[in-house]
Specification:
Elements lengths: L1 H28 L7 E2 L2 H9 L3 E7 L4 H14 L8 E6 L4 H6 L7 E6 L2 E7 L4 H9 L8
Parallel strand pairs: 1-3, 2-3
Antiparallel strand pairs: 2-4, 4-5
Amino acid sequence: MMGNAMTGNARIHRRSLLIACVTAGIAAALPASAMPQRFTQAAFDAARTAGKPILVEVTAPWCPVCRAQKPILSRLTAEDRFRDLVVLEVDFDSQKDVVRAFNVQKQSTLIVFRGMQERGRSTGDTNAGSIAALVAKSIDMARM
Protein backbone atom coordinates (compact mmCIF):
# COMPACT_ATOMS: atom_id res chain seq x y z
CA MET A 1 0.00 0.00 0.00
CA MET A 2 2.78 2.39 0.94
CA GLY A 3 4.64 1.63 -2.30
CA ASN A 4 1.58 2.42 -4.40
CA ALA A 5 1.01 5.75 -2.65
CA MET A 6 4.61 6.80 -3.27
CA THR A 7 4.35 5.72 -6.89
CA GLY A 8 1.17 7.78 -7.23
CA ASN A 9 2.86 10.79 -5.63
CA ALA A 10 5.85 10.37 -7.92
CA ARG A 11 3.52 10.30 -10.95
CA ILE A 12 1.74 13.44 -9.81
CA HIS A 13 5.07 15.18 -9.20
CA ARG A 14 6.41 14.06 -12.59
CA ARG A 15 3.19 15.20 -14.34
CA SER A 16 3.31 18.59 -12.57
CA LEU A 17 6.94 19.02 -13.58
CA LEU A 18 6.12 18.15 -17.19
CA ILE A 19 3.24 20.66 -17.28
CA ALA A 20 5.49 23.37 -15.81
CA CYS A 21 8.19 22.69 -18.42
CA VAL A 22 5.73 22.75 -21.32
CA THR A 23 4.17 25.98 -20.04
CA ALA A 24 7.59 27.60 -19.68
CA GLY A 25 8.54 26.45 -23.17
CA ILE A 26 5.42 27.98 -24.69
CA ALA A 27 6.03 31.26 -22.86
CA ALA A 28 9.65 31.30 -24.02
CA ALA A 29 8.54 30.72 -27.61
CA LEU A 30 6.34 33.83 -27.62
CA PRO A 31 8.03 36.83 -29.18
CA ALA A 32 9.11 39.21 -26.43
CA SER A 33 8.22 42.27 -28.49
CA ALA A 34 4.56 41.23 -28.70
CA MET A 35 4.28 41.20 -24.93
CA PRO A 36 3.21 44.61 -23.63
CA GLN A 37 5.82 46.46 -21.64
CA ARG A 38 5.63 49.67 -19.65
CA PHE A 39 6.45 52.70 -21.78
CA THR A 40 9.91 54.12 -21.32
CA GLN A 41 11.41 56.76 -23.55
CA ALA A 42 14.48 54.56 -24.03
CA ALA A 43 12.40 51.58 -25.28
CA PHE A 44 10.36 53.84 -27.56
CA ASP A 45 13.48 55.52 -28.99
CA ALA A 46 15.22 52.17 -29.54
CA ALA A 47 12.21 50.72 -31.36
CA ARG A 48 11.86 53.84 -33.52
CA THR A 49 15.55 53.88 -34.40
CA ALA A 50 15.38 50.19 -35.34
CA GLY A 51 12.39 50.90 -37.60
CA LYS A 52 10.17 48.55 -35.61
CA PRO A 53 6.39 48.64 -35.75
CA ILE A 54 5.18 50.14 -32.48
CA LEU A 55 1.85 50.24 -30.70
CA VAL A 56 1.56 52.78 -27.89
CA GLU A 57 -1.42 51.84 -25.75
CA VAL A 58 -2.63 54.54 -23.36
CA THR A 59 -4.59 52.68 -20.74
CA ALA A 60 -6.01 52.87 -17.22
CA PRO A 61 -6.91 49.95 -14.95
CA TRP A 62 -10.32 51.46 -14.15
CA CYS A 63 -11.27 52.02 -17.81
CA PRO A 64 -13.94 49.65 -19.20
CA VAL A 65 -13.02 50.49 -22.81
CA CYS A 66 -9.36 49.67 -22.07
CA ARG A 67 -10.46 46.34 -20.59
CA ALA A 68 -12.44 45.62 -23.77
CA GLN A 69 -9.41 46.45 -25.94
CA LYS A 70 -7.05 44.10 -24.05
CA PRO A 71 -8.30 40.76 -25.45
CA ILE A 72 -8.48 42.20 -28.97
CA LEU A 73 -4.89 43.42 -28.74
CA SER A 74 -3.80 40.14 -27.20
CA ARG A 75 -5.25 38.17 -30.13
CA LEU A 76 -3.70 40.54 -32.66
CA THR A 77 -0.23 40.46 -31.15
CA ALA A 78 -0.32 36.67 -31.25
CA GLU A 79 -0.67 36.77 -35.05
CA ASP A 80 2.47 36.03 -37.04
CA ARG A 81 2.18 39.22 -39.07
CA PHE A 82 2.64 41.25 -35.88
CA ARG A 83 5.56 39.17 -34.52
CA ASP A 84 7.89 42.21 -34.58
CA LEU A 85 5.38 44.61 -33.03
CA VAL A 86 6.63 46.44 -29.96
CA VAL A 87 3.75 47.15 -27.57
CA LEU A 88 4.35 49.94 -25.06
CA GLU A 89 1.74 50.65 -22.40
CA VAL A 90 1.33 54.15 -21.01
CA ASP A 91 -0.54 54.41 -17.72
CA PHE A 92 -2.96 57.31 -18.17
CA ASP A 93 -2.93 58.19 -14.47
CA SER A 94 0.73 57.86 -13.52
CA GLN A 95 2.55 58.79 -16.75
CA LYS A 96 1.02 62.21 -17.38
CA ASP A 97 4.22 63.56 -18.96
CA VAL A 98 4.07 60.84 -21.62
CA VAL A 99 0.32 61.37 -22.11
CA ARG A 100 0.98 65.08 -22.74
CA ALA A 101 3.94 64.37 -25.03
CA PHE A 102 1.70 62.22 -27.25
CA ASN A 103 -1.08 64.85 -27.07
CA VAL A 104 -3.52 62.26 -25.72
CA GLN A 105 -6.75 63.49 -24.17
CA LYS A 106 -8.26 60.19 -22.99
CA GLN A 107 -7.31 56.72 -21.91
CA SER A 108 -8.11 53.93 -24.42
CA THR A 109 -6.00 55.73 -27.04
CA LEU A 110 -4.00 53.54 -29.40
CA ILE A 111 -1.19 55.06 -31.47
CA VAL A 112 0.79 53.15 -34.08
CA PHE A 113 4.22 54.03 -35.43
CA ARG A 114 6.54 52.59 -38.00
CA GLY A 115 9.99 53.81 -37.16
CA MET A 116 9.95 57.57 -36.74
CA GLN A 117 6.53 58.13 -38.32
CA GLU A 118 3.14 57.99 -36.59
CA ARG A 119 0.87 55.96 -38.86
CA GLY A 120 -2.45 56.39 -37.04
CA ARG A 121 -4.38 56.62 -33.78
CA SER A 122 -7.78 55.94 -32.31
CA THR A 123 -9.54 56.58 -29.03
CA GLY A 124 -12.32 54.54 -27.48
CA ASP A 125 -12.41 51.92 -30.23
CA THR A 126 -13.51 48.40 -29.25
CA ASN A 127 -14.17 47.08 -32.77
CA ALA A 128 -11.76 44.23 -33.50
CA GLY A 129 -11.73 44.94 -37.23
CA SER A 130 -10.89 48.61 -36.97
CA ILE A 131 -8.28 47.99 -34.28
CA ALA A 132 -6.67 45.35 -36.53
CA ALA A 133 -6.68 47.83 -39.43
CA LEU A 134 -5.05 50.46 -37.23
CA VAL A 135 -2.33 48.11 -35.94
CA ALA A 136 -1.70 46.87 -39.51
CA LYS A 137 -0.64 50.42 -40.40
CA SER A 138 2.45 49.84 -38.28
CA ILE A 139 3.86 47.05 -40.43
CA ASP A 140 5.49 47.26 -43.82
CA MET A 141 3.03 47.03 -46.66
CA ALA A 142 5.34 44.46 -48.32
CA ARG A 143 4.78 42.04 -45.43
CA MET A 144 0.98 42.21 -45.55
